[in-house]
Amino acid sequence: MAEQNFLVEIGTEELPPKALRSLGQAFADNLQNELNSADLAFDSIRWFAAPRRLAVQVTHLAEAQPDKQIEKRGPAVQAAFDADGNPTKAAEGWARGNGISVEQAGRLKTDKGEWLVHVADIKGKAAAELLPAMVEQALNRLPIPKAMRWGDKATQFIRPVHTLTLLLGEQLLPATILGVDSARTIRGHRFMGEREFQLDHADHYLEQLEKRGRVLADFERRKAIIEAGVKDAAAVVGGIADLDDDLLEEVTSLVEWPVVLTASFEEAFLKVPAEALVYTMKGDQKYFPVYDTDGKLLPKFIFVTNIESKDPSQIVQGNEKVVRPRLADAEFFFNTDRKTTLASRLEQLDNVLFQQQLGTVKEKSERISALASYVAAAIGADQALAERAGLLSKCDLVTNMVFEFTDTQGVMGMHYARHDGEPEAVALALKEQYQPRFAGDSLPGQDVSAAVALADKLDTLVGIFGIGQAPKGDKDPFALRRAALGALRIIVEKGYRLDLLMLIDQARALYGHKISNDNVAEDVLEFMLGRFRSWYQDLGYGVDVIQAVLARRPTRPADFDARVKAVSAFRELEAAAALAAANKRVGNILAKFEGDIPAEVNASLLQDEAEKVLAGQVAELTERLAPLFADGDYSKALAELASLREGVDAFFDQVMVMAEDDTIRLNRLALLNQLRNLFLRVADISLLQ
Fold first, then answer.
1. Contact of 402 with 409, CB cutoff 8 Å
2. Strand partners, 3
3. At what angle do helices 500-511 and 520-538 cross, to 10 degrees?
4. Residue 465 and residue 482: Cα distance in Å, rounded?
5. Angstrom distance (rounded) from CA 223 to CA 215
6. Which residues contact 485 (CB under 8 A, 6 or more apart)?
7. 477 or 123, which is more confident?
8. CA distances (Å), origin 254, targets 43, 195, 243, 304, 382
9. How confident is the model over 32-42, as pLDDT tens digits?
């Protein structure tokens, strides 16, 4: 079958830079799904995206769907003809629907009888006929949170659409999508190259757009050019660029023809904490800061312009003029803030609301202080330092610097605490209290910081759950999921032997009468255990392994972690499947029994050799594994329990559990109960698949 390359491009106003990649990828994915659904064969599909366009190119696209034969079964022969052999109305109606007479129908014999059948030849539709509707469907399914209208048009899209091009090879496909007719018109760069040109063939899109339009439509190529250019520019000034990937993606989405330039700012601004300067350069101006080999900020920045100027120095000077007032603001705020100590700002927090029902940020700071002291005592950290850090933890929120540059909270608290002469552990805790901020972020580096971070997260969790405002769906205004996962990571990865229920109860007590939800402790615990499920799934652990541990509801996160790893290792043992099945069988037997089961096995009532052997093994392991369970050495304990496989198999093969004699039956149930309880000291392995 003949093949052609297909191109679709929509030309728009500037698209949202942070959404550009997802829009381009989704456009290609949606169109691919449409092609697959229509059974149109192709070789590959590729997306392109630039500030004012989205495009998809499909290579070696079949010019038509393959012809098909479809078997359409009719009524049974017995029901298709009456006693005189004449076609019934059902048979005639079915035949008319297929465009044939009953006499033209074939017969299909099966084990269940004979049926009328018609094999229809369906000719495949041409790709040119199908593609416009497919493109429209692909665009309609883009992840657009809020569509807009423009002019007097009723159509909606993420931004106004000006051009539409659908080319199958050199053939222009007629279509009207989003209120725009398909044409060969491709718009070039706003200020360079040809403003518009006519594209003659789908294969010439990238080449013609680059040469004539001065636009690099390939997102990945633009990104690579920018990354390499920024690295080279930094090397020229003897530094290393801060190539934050989010910023790199955003800058790539802002330019059609990237040109990398280097500029400077006054060295005097380096007296301001680097974090504030970097926040201004990256967040506000989309510049790449430059550091020396020791990690010290240099008075240089690299930026990407969207035009090739004959006099680049003019662009450099312009950007230096733009950034200077922002850096001057940061310098002014920094100098002004240092005239007042952090501690003296505590009273100002009484005017800042944390949550209407839960009080002010000052009250939160006092609770964090008390809870941090409690946690510090439990993990062997300095209580006084944790208490002091907790009290000062939110004071930088009312500084000029943080008010203007919100992302510097915590960091500025650290700098101001050092200026005030606070202990270094306190200063570091002010910065590290928010860690981990996101998946993969580093944890607090010291125990005092960890105590404050845990106190902050638990205070928020208990408070918000305490007034009945648990997250619903994707709405989580207080970032409780992130807080819960962050707290779990700190406890697990730092190996703290902390119990969630104890921490939750302590946080609950500090709120006093403000808590209205009587089930807050159970709700918070359940929520945090739920975060374990998603966390360990992301780490690659099986759902059944996680469920087996969750069934025991261990409340010490480090203990939970040890159990998951132990069960995961046990699951790979040869004996695991048989023992999991046996545990399930035992659980079902015990669940069906009504009445009290003896706590101990009476050795004198053991009759069969198999039950004597198993009872001896269970008694021995109960004693031998006690210290392993106490130490949390679950891996070794499960490895030892794996030795029970032969004894358990023999027991179920040779012993009738539900014996007629009541005392014998109860004794055997007691043995099974002891066996199951040994495994339950780790997890419910009956849930393993």
1. yes
2. 62
3. 140
4. 14
5. 13
6. 439, 531, 534, 535
7. 477
8. 31, 18, 16, 9, 49
9. 999 998 888 89
5 Cβ partners below 8 Å, 6+ apart?
Answer: 57, 58, 59, 60, 61, 168, 169, 202, 203
52, 15 Cβ separation under 8 angstroms? yes
- Distance in angstroms (rounded) separating the CA atoms of residues 531 and 562: 16
Report the sign of the C-alpha dihedral through residues 507, 513, 515, 516, in that order: positive
Question: What string of DSSP letters covers 396-413?
Answer: GGGSHHHHHSGGGTTHHH
What is the distance between the alpha carbons of residues 161 and 150, in angstroms, rounded to a whole number? Answer: 9
Taking only the tens place, the pLDDT of each residue in 246-277 is 999 999 999 999 999 999 999 999 999 999 99
CA atoms of 340 and 132, how far apart (whole Å): 66
Q: Fill in the amino acid letter for 39.
A: D
- Confidence bin at 1 (pLDDT 50/70/90): low
Q: Which residue has the higher pLDDT, 314 or 657?
A: 314
pLDDT digits (tens, 9 = 90+) for 387-403: 999 999 999 999 999 99
Q: Name every residue whose Cβ is closer than 8 Å to that of residue 615 and which is 6 or more positions away in sequence.
A: 601, 603, 606, 671
Task: Centre a 10 Å sphere on the Cβ of residue 576 and count the other Cβ atoms it contains.
Answer: 18
Categorize the per-residue pLDDT at 485 as very low, low, confident or very high, splitting at 50, 70 and 90: very high
Q: For residue 685, which of 515, 565, 551 has the smallest C-alpha distance?
A: 551
